[in-house]
Amino acid sequence: MKGQNKLFIAIIIALILGVGIGGLVHVKYPESAEPFSKNIKLLGTVFIRLVQMIIAPLVFTTLVVGIAKMSDIKMIGRVGTKAMLWFISASLVSLFIGLILVNWLEPGHVTKLPIQDVASADELLKSSKSFSLEDFVKHMIPKSLFEAFATNEVLQIVVFAIMFGVALANLGEEYSKPVVKLFDIMAHGILKMVGYIMWFAPLGVLGAIAAVVATNGFEIFKVYAIYLRDFFFALGVLWLVLLLVGYFILGNRLFDLLKRIKEPLLIAFSTTSSEAVFPKLVEELEKFGCNSRVVSFILPLGYSFNLDGSMMYMTFASIFIAQIYGIEMTLGQQITMLLVLMLTSKGIAGVPRASLVIIVATCSMFGIPPEGIALILPIDHFCDMGRSMTNVLGNTLATSAVSKWEGQLTEPLDKI
C-alpha cells in the first residue's frame, strides 16, 4: 500500500511538472512547441513499450494457469457451471454498459486533439472498409504461437492458451501439476515486473502531458473533468444493475451483506487493489452464511474471471481514446472489440492497473494509438479506486448468489 501511495504521489508530481513545462513552452516558446513535443514524447514511448513487452507472456501464463485449475469444476459440477454462467453474463453486461455509455456521453469528443500520425489514421480507415468475418477468423487463429508472441497478437495467444489450458486440465494432475506450477511461478514473476514497470509511469506521464499541453494549451484539462464525471456515472449504472440482480436473488439479506463488506469495499477503494481484501472477504462471506467450499472455489476463480469494474472500464477507456484521436469506429468494430476484451481480459489477476495492459493491447489491435493510454494515466488512480471496489462487489454477489442457488446459504454464523 505504501508503494502504491508513493507511485501515486510520483505521478501527481510528474503531472504538475508536465503541465508546468508544457505550459511554459506553449506560452513562451510557441515556435518550439512541435519539436519539443516530439522529443519529450519519447518518455511516454519508453513506458508504453515496456508495457507492451510483458503483454504476451502475462496473458499466456495467467490464462493457462486459470484454465488448467478449472479442473475443479468437474468435482463441483453444478456449482462451477453456475459460477461460469454468472461470470460470462456479468462480464458481457459490464462491457455493454461501458460501450453504450461512452458512445452516448462521448467524453472524448469534448476536446479534439490532432492526430499525430496521419499515416496510421489512413491505414485504419482502409482496414475499416475491408473488415470482414474472414479477416477476423484469420486474425484470431494463429499459424504459429511464436509468430503471435513476436507480433503481440493477443487474441491468437488467448486461443492457444485456452486450448492448452483445457488440455492440461484433462491430462491428469500427475502430468500437468509441474507445468501448471511452472506457469504459475512465471505469471507471478511477470506480475512482479508489472509493479516495476509502473514506476516508469511518472516519466510517461511527464512526457505525454508536457507534449499535449505544449501543443494544445490548457484546454486538454476539460477532458479530464468530463472523463471522470462520465466514468463514475457509468460505474453508478453498473452498481445499480448489480444491486438489483443481487436483491432479486438474495432479497432483504442483500442489505446485511452490504453492511458486512463495507470495510473490504473501503479498503479496495483506498488501496486500488481488490486482492488486498481477499482474506477479509472470505471471512465475511462465511460469516454471512455462504458455504465454505463454495466460497473457496468461486471467490478465487472470480478474481481472475469476474472483474466487473475492470471490464466496464476497458470498453469505456478504449473507445474514449479512439474519440480523443478523432477515430470513428463502426458498430461492427465496437462489438468485435467487446468480444475481444471478453476473451483477453480473462485470467488477468486483479492487481492495480492490470486492465491498462489489456487496453494498450486492444488499442494496438484496432489501430487506435496505444500512447493515448498515457493521457488518462494521471487520473487512472481515481478510476482504479472505483473499479477495484466494483470488482469486490461483483465477486461478493457472485459467491452469495451461487450459494443461494445451491441451497447452501444458511443463517449468519454470528446470529446462530
From TrEMBL:
GO molecular function: symporter activity
A Pfam family of this chain: SDF
TM annotation in the entry: 7-27, 47-71, 83-105, 154-172, 193-214, 226-250, 319-344, 356-379
Any one GO CC term of the record: plasma membrane
Family annotation (SUPFAM superfamilies): Proton glutamate symport protein
Major localisation: membrane
Places the protein is found: Cell membrane
Topology relative to the membrane: Multi-pass membrane protein
GO biological process: dicarboxylic acid transport
InterPro entries assigned: Na-dicarboxylate_symporter, Na:dicarbo_symporter_sf
Protein name: C4-dicarboxylate ABC transporter
Organism this protein belongs to: Chryseobacterium artocarpi
Record keywords, A-Z: Cell membrane, Membrane, Symport, Transmembrane, Transmembrane helix, Transport
